[in-house]
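Quick question: what would this complex look like in 3D?
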Amino acid sequence: MLIIAGAGSGKTRALTYRIAHMVHERKIPPDSILAVTFTNKAAGEMKERIAKLVGPLGRKLWVGTFHAICARILRADGEAIGVPPNFVIFNDSDQRALIKQALSVLDIDAKEYKPADIHFAISAAKNELMSPQEYRRGRRGPFDEVVQRVYGRYQSGLRANAALDFDDLLMRTEQLLREQKGVLAKYHERIKYILVDEFQDINHAQNEFVRLLGQKHQNVCVVGDDDQSIYGWRGANIGLILDFERRYKDAKVIKLEQNYRSTQKILECAYEIIKHNEDRRDKKLWTQNRPGDNLVQYEAVDAEQEAEWVAETIRTQVNCQLATYGEYAILYRTNAMSRVFEEGLMTYRIPYEVVGGIRFYERAVIRDFIAYLRVLYNSADGVSLRRIINVPARGIGDKTVSHIDRLADANGLTMHETLAVAAKDENLQKRARSAIADFAEILASLREKRESLTLTEFCRAVAEDTGYLRALENSDNADDAIKAENLKEFVSLAQRFEQVHEQSDLGAFLEHIALLSDLDQAQEIDSKVSLMTLHSAKGLEFPIVFMVGLEENVFPHQRSMGDKHELAEERRLCYVGITRAQHMLYLTHAYRRTIFGAPQNMKPSRFLSDLPDELIDRQVDLSNLMSSSVLGDEGERAEMEIGGRKIDMTQLLSRVQENGAKARERSTALPEEPEEKPKREAGKSREARRKRAEAAAKRAGQRKRKAVEAAPQSVSEVTYKSGERVKHTKFGEGIVVQVKGEGSNAELTIAFATQGVKRLLADVAPIEKV
DNA sequence: GGTTATGGATTTTTT
DNA sequence: ATCCATAACC
């Protein structure tokens, strides 16, 4: 069965009710049902909802992500194709390290062939189930040649480390099921019903996995929406959802087109965006919900103002009890954009939660510690060993390490085994030898302890015996204190894992953290504004949504420019964002944004101009006019172009009061008294939060100082600020839109109601404030 | 061998 | 603006 389910049409509900029906009405044993999702979040949610419907029986269901399920299959049966049962899972940075190693072995310049690009190519090949040998079919460039060689080397590197990468989990499972008929038969026996969520995001390897598992019983039910396919860059192939009908000849196709989530106006806008895409199944969602309010578009001068406006809007609404913080989401295109919004929210003391982004597990300390655990779990893992061989510094530097490398190569041993050899090698300095011996001793004693200790105790022992924790605590580097805290936090995380999971040995724990990257999700997310990328927002809904940074080259992203398919994907991403909103949607953009530390002029996103005027209320903050790039030199009619729209100056003038009041409000809202640091939430990234809070406080301080400096030096001088109304003896009334310089030397740019825009000197021009 | 200074690249989205 | 790799210095 193929269920084409539009956004907000109750897709997860359809899946969970189907499962409940199968269990309750059809008396199908729950352990013969497999439900597959893409994200842990989705898997968790599904488990929860099924548990509610089905009760304790539901726990026997097999629910998980593709990767988690494959890992489980490979642990159980992978040995048949040479996958070691205690394999570790390499993440991005491990993979990158291995690729760099391969590049240096093959003597290829990492500057010419970027590891990231090669990684991407290898990953793509694996998603297409292509081996290194098959890689070059139909490709013949120097880059492809390099990729092929690195790919081969990389795979043997993985093997030598007893490791699999994310893509291997899929590729090797496919291989296992394809080659080992006995294994396949075993799983056919076990799994009779397969359900797949978000089928539009499926890639070739995953599709093959489903096909092999489902081919016997032909009972496969998939749910998806081609308009929400946003993972093409990861190998997802929309074609496969179409292929489904061909593959399963008597498949039923069901369309869910009623939306239960959003207002009519929001849906209308979503449709206006998506309808521009070609090659989509034409469908139009409808709803019985109320029409709702118009969407609001806000234009800011710069990203800071944009963030401030968002924060202010949220605070005002919450203060008026129109909503609670937990009902808001701020969605942006790239993670890098979260920061400016975090600062804005902090200034207004609004509690928030960043979903995704810099993760706990990606921090250097934590990765170091995990590397220790991995080495102790799987002694073949040389990548991890290399990472921690000199952490904390113990006198085994690069020179010594490459010597060990050579020894390992020469003797055909793992790096770990080579330690014993190296400790006796006369070619090494005595100091290095004893350092190596001490290190090997630490590892050996820890490995022994592993037998008798619980997971938590063992983690504690690793932190202490390796001297890592001590080194961090004794350091006088301020950052190290934070790192020590992190380490302890990690140990208590292990403790929590041990309490929650029945199977809580080291292997299970390592797998858990390898596959679950954002375990530190908020518990009390209900009371906080959620910040996340548009990608992470897929599958979620929020009463009030801010889509921010709607600017060309940000969204649609620069890298998608010029490619029709990628632009179509950006458009789908926009569609996904809009359809997250239940009651209200705000769309914001800024004319200036700092990218890579350099301020850039930005243009409003093309997506904004696709929205129908009558559904959008545009809020143009007058200080936009400060941006001279948007000033037009209009004549008598005194029209100006702002954001591609003609604005009548008289209208503009009528807004002056409002804006002036707002500006005054804003300047008083800004810290008069020293900024009291926003309440911090316990839990994830406490110190990251602290750092950011400090940065924000600093900024606020600077801003304040600036304000003081800008104040008139002498009372006799008249100073002008943008947004103020002035009267010129000849030109009549106008608004100051830009002030260059200070005091009487200032050059003012003034927009006059009848005479257009003029540049005047403050102390010469015959003007006075109105 | 360890620590600090400097220059260059870097940011799409995720299991 | 910040992270990372390499070079210079202790």
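Answer marked as accepted. The first strand of chain A starts at residue 2 and ends at 5.
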